[in-house]
């Protein structure tokens, strides 16, 4: 199923580009992102700042026990 979703995303992305829409640098909405989506695709240039905040707030990585995307 994950492979089908990845292929669907690629097709929609390619169609949007072919239609002249500049989505090449569009962020991936994290609530719809697959587990293998790189953090940089979701948070872009904000990733270093968010990683720093996460480290300051949760140095023992307690939130990582909840699952989801890891900074």
Range of strand content? under 5%
N-to-C order of helices and strands:
HHH
The number of distinct structural domains comes to 1
Intertermini distance: 25 Å
Whole-number mean pLDDT: 88
> Main β-sheet, in a few words?
none
- Secondary structure: number of strands: 0
Give the uncertain stretches in residue-range form: none
Description:
The chain is mostly helical. The chain has one domain (2-66). Helix content is 46%, strand content 0%. The chain contains three helices and no strands. The chain has helices spanning 2-18, 39-43, 47-57. The longest helix has 17 residues, at 2-18. The two termini are 25 Å apart. The mean pLDDT is 88.
Give a quick summary of the entry:
The chain has 71 residues and is mainly alpha-helical. The protein has helices spanning 2-18, 39-43, 47-57.
Please name the defining characteristics of this protein.
mainly alpha, 71 residues, 3 helices
Helix and strand layout, with pairings?
Blueprint: H1 2-18, H2 39-43, H3 47-57
């Amino acid at each position: 199923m994950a492979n089908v979703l990845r292929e669907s995303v690629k097709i929609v992305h390619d169609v949007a580009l072919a239609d002249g829409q500049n989505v090449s640098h569009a962020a991936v909405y994290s609530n719809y992102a697959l587990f293998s989506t790189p953090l940089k695709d979701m948070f872009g240039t904000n990733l270093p700042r968010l990683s720093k905040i996460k480290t300051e707030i949760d140095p023992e990585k307690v939130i990582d026990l909840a699952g989801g995307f890891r900074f």
